């Protein structure tokens, strides 16, 4: 374990932590110690700073979010990885931080990782929150034109291109004015193309559809009704297959955690606080 870098930002601490030989850039939000922290898996290519607006709206809960290896401040791994490997790194991170139980959330690509974590470590994962995500390879995809723009690495290297496609690929609040688009573009950090490819490869062929019935965690599923990337039918499938799941449909698009952080945090905290 190492802490080569520590930065205080409000009540969010940034640390570099070594986990089984892989260094991770980790953000830790402080909060009351009487509830499990929220372990967050971010979307593809998303640096952890994009989660800060949401983190700051969490009123009574600690949280953990980290840059996936090859994204943001986490170095590129020596080899490609699979969801099970990333789940193991996240488990080791929880152990290093001294947590024997966490609540887990995942957004988009990170929603698949959250499902994997919940299945792989059922005793460690108390509750599960899945936002704007799917069961992986078995899903109703967005339109090909939207998916091709989403998969393009150019949206992380050319901010003018990012601005030009944001409304089309994210929908919801991004269709109304440019404020959310500008805020998102400003928060995105340049990415490693190799790290981005590793993220794409990690989920290739992966699906949870055949074992979702095994998940026993109370699960909140959130989806926007104007999500061009992951249509709402995918959330409905998750809600049907996960035994103890609740579906929350929002009048929004793909990135409601970023554009409506307060409302989203309130909904998630209310769910996590239920007995």
Can you walk through the features of this model?
- This protein is an alpha/beta fold.
- The chain has one domain: 3-Layer(aba) Sandwich (Rossmann fold), CATH 3.40.50.1820.
- Helix content is 37%, strand content 19%.
- It contains eleven helices and nine strands.
- The protein has a nine-stranded mixed beta sheet, sandwiched between helices.
- β6, α3 and β7 form a beta-alpha-beta unit.
- α2 packs across α3.
- It is globular, with a radius of gyration of 17 Å.
- The N and C termini lie far apart (35 Å).
- The N terminus is likely disordered.
Q: How would you summarize what this structure contains?
A:
37% of the residues lie in helices and 19% in strands. The protein contains eleven helices and nine strands.
What's the structural blueprint in terms of helices and strands?
Elements: E1 6-9, E2 12-19, E3 22-29, E4 38-41, H1 52-57, E5 63-66, H2 83-96, E6 102-107, H3 109-120, E7 125-131, H4 144-151, H5 154-157, H6 159-170, H7 179-187, H8 193-202, E8 219-224, H9 232-241, E9 245-250, H10 256-259, H11 261-273
Helix pairs in contact: 2-3, 6-7
């Amino acid at each position: 374990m190492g802490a080569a870098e520590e930065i205080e930002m409000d009540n969010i601490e940034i640390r570099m932590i070594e986990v089984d030989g892989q260094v991770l850039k980790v953000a830790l939000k402080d909060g009351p110690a009487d509830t499990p922290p929220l372990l967050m898996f971010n979307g593809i290519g998303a640096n952890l700073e994009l989660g800060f607006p949401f983190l700051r709206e969490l009123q009574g809960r600690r949280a953990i979010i980290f840059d996936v290896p090859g994204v943001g401040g986490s170095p590129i791994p020596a080899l490609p990885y699979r969801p099970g490997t990333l789940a193991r790194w996240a488990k080791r991170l929880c152990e290093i931080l001294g947590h024997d139980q966490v609540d887990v959330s995942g957004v988009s690509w990170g929603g698949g990782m959250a499902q994997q974590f919940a299945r792989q470590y059922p005793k460690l994962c108390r509750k599960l929150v899945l936002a704007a995500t799917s069961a992986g390879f078995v899903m109703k995809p967005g339109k090909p034109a939207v998916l091709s723009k989403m998969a393009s690495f150019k949206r992380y290297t050319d901010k003018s291109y990012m601005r030009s496609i944001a409304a089309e690929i994210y929908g919801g609040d991004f269709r109304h004015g440019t404020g959310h688009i500008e805020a998102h573009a400003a928060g995105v950090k340049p990415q490693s193309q190799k790290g981005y490819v590793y993220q794409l490869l990690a989920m290739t062929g992966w699906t949870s559809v055949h074992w979702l019935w095994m998940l026993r965690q109370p699960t909140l599923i959130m989806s926007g009704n104007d999500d061009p990337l992951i249509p709402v039918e995918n959330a409905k499938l998750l809600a049907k297959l996960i035994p103890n799941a609740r579906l929350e449909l929002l009048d929004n698009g793909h990135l409601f955690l970023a554009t409506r952080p307060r409302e989203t945090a309130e909904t998630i905290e209310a769910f996590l606080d239920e007995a």
